[in-house]
Amino acid sequence: MNNSQNRSFFFGVLVILSSSVVRLGGCLYLPAIPAIGTGLNISDSDMASTVTFYFVVFALSSLLTGPFSDAFGRKPLVLCGTLFFIAGSVCCYMSNSYFSLLSGRLLQAFGASMIPGTGRAMIRDHCNDLQVVSLMGWLAVLGSVMFVGAPTLGGILTTTFGWRSNFSFLSIFSCIVVFLIFFYLPETLSKKLRTNISLKDSVKNYLKMLMVPRFSLVILPLFLAFIFQGAYLGSASFIFIKEFHFSPENFGYINVILLIGLLLGRNIAVKNSKKNSAKKAFWIGAILAPVASLSFIALIFSHQFQIILLLLGLLLFSTSIGIIIPLSMKVSISAFSVRRGETASLQAFVALFGSAVGALLVSLSMHFISNSAVINIFASISIALACLLPFSVKLGIKYIK
């Protein structure tokens, strides 16, 4: 690689590394959820609600990051967010009740909200179209890698050192990331392109953006994809640890199926983008979702081979969203030529609000249908999403290119 390629590669690594703080924050403590509930005497539905509230605060706070990054630059937002995340991790480590745990998680969410949208804006600032699709795909893959690696690490930490060690690890790792970002991550928004901050104008801009079909219709499938992610995050530890009796350290290994699916999906998206066949890839993603729903339907009505049916459904659905997420992100974040920070923030809000909706559906179902198996709750949500995805893709397909 020449110097330019080396710089681009190193830039991508740093953006992905900063995003990994967010991914770790959402996944590392998943296998510790039952242990935290037992240790702090918190019910399963209340523990599931910590995932919901995390994403709600994450989503709402992300709306503020765009105007601030457009006004003050991208790098200060990423640094500030990571510092808040460290403070929240320390608070979770010291928690002794549901309220103190939730407070730490909300502080983590507030800090984490400053990172993903700003990182995507940096990618759009710095990269060409093909690099954007590639890096967006790698960010999706990162999420899947964290589904595997973070819970596995979290399970080992929980079993070996207790659940509080998850949050001490997050604090130390985030401190290392702050150091690397401060010294090596370049600022991608020049001062002449920065805008004056006005939250009132930003709200108006967000509403205007949502009224533009090339943004709102393309981002709708992304919203549905992240509902699936939120539902999985809110239910996975209860399904595999409590219902299938996996040990905390083995919990993460089962998620390798998500990694395989997202990798396959990303490769399909990138290869078709190179051939100017992105619309074809978008349709492939749409069709795979209903196929995945057949496994989830069989899972609900069969008491045999449930783990196999669940894994098959996860593989097909994760491949579907592995195609949809990078293409939807690339097109929607490129919908407007100015105020890309605001565009990235709105995109992040839509995705995270989708995760909050998915986690909320799980926690509410666990509370009001307490006699229903969590695996059936998750399967039912997945079936509904699989039916909606093709319709959402049909609405936005003409804007994919």
Question: What features would you describe in this structure?
Answer:
There is one protein chain. The chain has 401 residues and is mainly α. The protein has one domain: MFS general substrate transporter like domains (Growth Hormone, Chain: A, Up-down Bundle), CATH 1.20.1250.20. It contains 16 helices and no strands. Helix 1 packs antiparallel against helix 6, helix 1 packs across helix 7 and helix 7 packs antiparallel against helix 12. The two termini are 29 Å apart. The mean pLDDT is 86.
How would you summarize the topology of this molecule?
Layout: H1 3-27, H2 33-40, H3 44-72, H4 74-93, H5 98-112, H6 116-126, H7 129-161, H8 164-184, H9 199-210, H10 213-243, H11 248-251, H12 256-274, H13 278-301, H14 306-333, H15 340-368, H16 374-396
Helix pairs in contact: 1-6, 1-7, 1-8, 2-3, 3-4, 3-5, 3-10, 3-15, 4-5, 4-6, 4-8, 6-15, 7-12, 7-14, 10-14, 10-15, 10-16, 12-13, 12-14, 13-14, 13-16, 15-16
